[in-house]
Amino acid sequence: MTASMLDTPYQGGFVGTTHHFALRVYFEDTDTAGIVYYANYLRFMERARSDMLRAAGIDQRSALDAGDGVYAVAEAHIRYRAPAKLDDDLVILSEVRELRAASCVIHQRVMRGSQPLAEATVTAAFLGLDGRPRRQPRAWIEAIARFKGEGTT
């Protein structure tokens, strides 16, 4: 392995319409019993969503710098099934379920192997810099539509 490979941040990617993002549970993610603190699942999912957008070809930083707008979580429903623990290898699976003019709904699962640990449905609204909802850029809608799960609205 070369130094340049080691210096490049990890990036997930799509398998069909499902985005895969792998991570390891570190000590900072856990409580004193070595169990992942419940709010950290939301952090893991946020990283996976940001990586999913990047993998779809969406540059959130450029849009923010240009004043076009940003995504913000408007709603999240999460269900915890089993605890993740220190040193677990996890994969966050993300699928776009709904694509609307000013938002998208993403279903996410935190998995340890084939075992689901948590799952969430997250609505991400596209907001102007004034904090008000606005239409997503057309190019973003087209990019996300390429990876939208089948059988969804």
Main β-sheet, spatial strand arrangement: 1-2-4-5-6-3
Q: Helix tally?
A: 4
Going by helix content, strand content and strand pairing, the class is alpha+beta
Tell me the series of helices and strands, N- to C-terminal: HEEHHEEEEH
- Total strand segments: 6
Taken from the alpha-carbon principal axes, the silhouette is globular
Query: Class in CATH?
Result: Alpha Beta
Assess the beta-strand content as a share of residues. 35-45%
Give the overall pLDDT as a whole number.
94
Multimeric state of these chains?
Answer: single chain
Can you name the CATH architecture? Roll
| Count of structural domains | 1
- State the fourth-level CATH superfamily: Hotdog Thioesterase
GO molecular function, one term: fatty acyl-CoA hydrolase activity
Family: Belongs to the 4-hydroxybenzoyl-CoA thioesterase family.
Keywords: Hydrolase
Organism: Allosphingosinicella indica
